[in-house]
Write a structure and sequence with these properties.
The structure is a single chain. This protein is of the alpha+beta class. The protein has 15 helices and 15 strands. It has 2 domains: about 160 residues, no CATH class; about 210 residues, no CATH class. It holds the Pfam family DndB.
């Protein structure tokens, strides 16, 4: 028998935009009553009309969220925001009860609002869609607006999303240090901290922790996020899954030789006590770069590229190719062996400038290509 009403305990909240009701609804019940109102364009007598509130669903994002809710870290503490037709909502203030129900007009039998579809999602469509076709049924925090027009719905959606400042990626990675479980991101964070703090490291005091310059330190040319993102793919192809393995099990599986060719640092990460070996490889590799092109590496001013984002991205991409020409098993390669490779390159210090390697991904790709060509490493 299909459901015809939903009884909820609510808390009334009054803000500048109006009154709404805060409550908890299970994900599967919320899916029953909600429609996904996508923004679309239609033609009406040659005039374009913009309809709907939400942007079209991005299924890759839905799948990523669906994977997340299956992990031990899964949580949605922020509220989903919905709108309900006033004809489908009855408030009982004495008991703080909100009853959502279907509607049939007493006069016009054609005016019917079925229970399935009485609500429109204003914000949170991807989060809710992730629960569809699953048995997962969390209680979700929900804020309900009753009887607001489409213009107000659109205003709420745009204001909420405009006000959400994108989180600093360097800060996110830094916070992994507080995680009790072992994870690829936490390992990368710890390695980056060491790269920045060890005087013998070519990155000593060059990495901006939390993504912004450190007071009293000059010459920081890379953000923490840039360095973490460069190292992370050499440990894992799926950080979320490996983070969950670390939290639930604590033992990482052997993934074999084929995986090693893509993720050269995973065997060290798997051993749980060998992160220092990843650090040693990185120090040896970039120290060889520093020795081969000392002027370009130590130039941190305007026009410098080798120790900045473009240079780092091209060099970290080249690392795997160099490493696999030197070994077929997970071992630490010495600085001298890396230096022998770079000594074959005909690139000069003066060539490391924005004219040869322009800003953006194209410059990093060009550096990678020229490193391969000038050292004779085939990829």
């Amino acid at each position: 028998m299909s459901r015809t009403k939903l009884q909820l305990q609510y808390q009334e909240i009054q803000q500048e935009i109006g009154t709404f009701y805060s409550t908890v609804i299970s994900a599967q019940k919320l899916l029953e009553i909600c429609t996904f109102d996508f923004r679309k364009i239609s033609e009406n007598d040659g005039i374009k009309e913009f309809l709907g509130i939400q942007r079209p669903l991005k299924m890759d994002r839905v799948r990523e969220i669906q994977k997340f809710i299956r992990t031990s870290d899964g949580c949605f503490p922020t509220s989903i925001v919905i709108s309900v037709d006033e004809r489908c909502a009855t408030l009982i203030p004495e008991s703080h009860e909100l009853v959502l129900h279907s509607y049939e007009d007493a006069v016009d039998a054609e005016i019917v609002i079925p229970f399935r579809g009485i609500a429109t999602i204003i914000d949170g469509q991807h989060r809710l869609k992730a629960f569809e076709n699953t048995s997962i049924d969390w209680g979700l925090s929900v804020n309900i607006f009753v009887g607001i027009d489409e213009g107000t719905q659109a205003s709420i959606f745009s204001k909420v999303n405009l006000a959400q400042t994108k989180v600093n990626k360097s800060l996110v990675y830094d916070l992994f240090a507080l995680d009790k479980g072992r994870s690829p991101e936490k390992t990368c964070h710890e390695i980056v901290v060491a790269l920045n703090s060890i005087p013998e490291s070519p990155f000593y005091e060059r990495i901006k922790r939390l993504g912004s310059a450190t007071d009293g330190i000059f010459g920081e040319t890379l953000s923490q996020a840039t360095v973490v993102k460069g190292i992370l793919p050499y440990i894992t192809k799926d950080p979320m899954t490996d983070r969950d393995i670390g939290k639930r099990i604590g033992v990482f599986p052997d993934r074999g030789a084929v995986d090693f060719e893509r993720r050269i640092f995973y065997p060290f990460f798997q051993k749980t006590t060998a992160d220092a070996e990843i650090l040693a490889i990185l120090i040896n590799y970039f120290s060889a770069v520093q020795d081969r092109w000392p002027i370009a590496w130590n130039n941190t001013g305007k026009g410098a590229i080798l120790s900045r984002t473009n240079g780092f991205n091209g060099l970290i991409r080249f690392l795997r190719d160099v490493y696999l020409t030197e070994t077929s098993t997970p071992v630490v390669i010495s600085k001298e062996r890396f230096h022998r490779v770079f000594s074959r390159s005909t690139l000069t210090d003066e060539q490391f400038n924005p004219n040869v390697f322009p800003p953006g991904s194209s410059g990093a790709a060009e550096l990678y290509r020229q490193l391969c060509d000038t050292t004779g490493i085939k990829v």
